[in-house]
Amino acid sequence: MSAFIQRLLGLRIVRYGLTGGIATLIHFSLALLVLAQWPQAFALANLLGFSLAFLFSYWVQTCWVFENQLSLANALRFLLVQLTALCLSVWLSSQLNQFHNIIKVGVVIVLLPALTFVIHRFWTFSRTESS
Fold first, then answer.
1. C-alpha to C-alpha distance for 77 and 125, rounded to whole angstroms
2. CB 51 within 8 A of CB 13
3. Contact (CB, 8 A) for 83 and 76
4. Which residues form a coiled coil (predicted)?
5. Which of 60, 64, 58, 42 is nearest to 124 (CA)?
6. If you write DSSP's letter for every residue of 67-106 in order, what string do you get?
7. Which of 12, 108, 115, 120 could form a disulfide with 124 if both were Cys (CB 3.0 to 4.6 A apart)?
8. Is the pTM of this model over 0.70?
């Protein structure tokens, strides 16, 4: 691996973004596979996609990004942060009604990962709390 790529992967925020991108692809791919078999099963497709992406994301974020131990307490905090981010994205989008959908989506996909990174860094995976 080149020195540049090694330096990039040494940055926690880069590992976080890469993991989030892969988790998004997992969710998207599994949802499409389910929908290919059952075109009306939109909710099921997204539930399965979210679930697999969540498990992947929690595991990789814990072990690689934040270099922490897997635990039920961390998993529950991780889930709480992710669900809160989902609610925040819906609320934020509703507050930006006067803007084009591209702007709303852009704000959500930039702001929320940055916010969840900070929360995960200082709360979910805080080394000062016992899990």
1. 9
2. no
3. no
4. none
5. 58
6. -----HHHHHHHHHHHHHHHHHHHHHHHHTTTS-HHHHHH
7. 120
8. yes
